[in-house]
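hey
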């Protein structure tokens, strides 16, 4: 479902959706910082990490707050990383793209949530090379609920949500098993951990949200992009042959592409095989 771009209402609504996404991105910054530290997402309120002064509401306005402060704390002038407004802007853009692709639909709401989950996991994996269980496991459960809701919206009977949840459950198990096997095989072949323990759980989450076919498309895209960057990085001397590289961001990227274009990619693949 494509949204017409030549309508003024689309631009007005798109602006609102971008602002909503930026606000969600502001919350994601909290998630990215606090979840790995085992801190509460609600307490204490937002504060400067350097002087610990509680921030005012106007300092917390997404994107604009950072610009107003010129990237520094109002109270101690400590630099505030540019990644905060960038994550807010990225989330806003993802929300707008999702709306433009799927319009007013349950899928838009669900995919905005799914992409937010992926963005938080990506940043944490890039920072610390971990994928917290609290995020991947809650993401799996949310994906099951989403698939149950999608199934009910398509066929409103009492059995359809059960069917949707069961299919999502099977896709989760398949993703977990496949990546666990890859992880074990890689460890045996290279005599060291070839993949983190969180990657199979992320694959299970992707399966829950997108189904087993799109989970496989996501995995293929992740391996393709990861191989290109890995080989290119080694050729340029930027990556060592046995240097650990987080795979979660590649999986997240593959899942995002599959969410928008997975059906077309799968159709193209089947066409090439004459299926």
């Amino acid at each position: 479902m494509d949204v017409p771009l030549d309508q003024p209402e689309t631009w007005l609504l798109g602006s609102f959706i971008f602002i909503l996404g930026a606000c969600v991105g502001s919350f994601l910054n909290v998630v990215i910082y606090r979840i790995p530290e085992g801190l509460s997402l609600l307490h204490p309120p937002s504060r400067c990490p350097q002087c610990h002064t509680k921030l005012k509401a106007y300092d917390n306005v997404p994107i604009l707050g950072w610009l107003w402060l010129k990237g520094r704390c109002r109270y101690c002038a400590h630099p505030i990383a540019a990644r905060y407004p960038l994550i807010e802007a990225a989330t806003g853009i993802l929300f707008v793209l999702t709306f433009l692709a799927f319009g007013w639909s349950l899928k838009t709401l669900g995919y905005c949530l799914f992409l937010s989950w992926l963005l938080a996991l990506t940043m944490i994996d890039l920072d610390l090379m971990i994928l917290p269980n609290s995020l991947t496991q809650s993401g799996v459960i949310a994906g099951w609920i989403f698939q149950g809701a999608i199934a009910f919206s398509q066929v409103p009977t009492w059995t359809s949500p059960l069917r949707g949840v069961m299919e999502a459950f099977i896709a989760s198990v398949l993703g977990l098993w496949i990546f666990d096997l890859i992880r074990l095989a890689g460890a045996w072949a290279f005599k060291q951990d070839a993949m983190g323990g969180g990657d199979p759980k992320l694959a299970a989450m992707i399966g829950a949200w997108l189904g087993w076919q799109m989970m496989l498309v996501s995995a293929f895209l992740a391996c393709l992009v990861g191989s290109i960057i890995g080989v290119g990085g080694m050729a340029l001397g930027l990556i060592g042959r046995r240097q650990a590289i987080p795979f979660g961001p590649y999986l997240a990227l593959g899942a995002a592409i599959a969410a928008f274009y997975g059906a077309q990619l799968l159709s193209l693949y089947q066409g090439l095989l004459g299926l």
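The mean pLDDT is 89. The longest helix spans residues 198-235.
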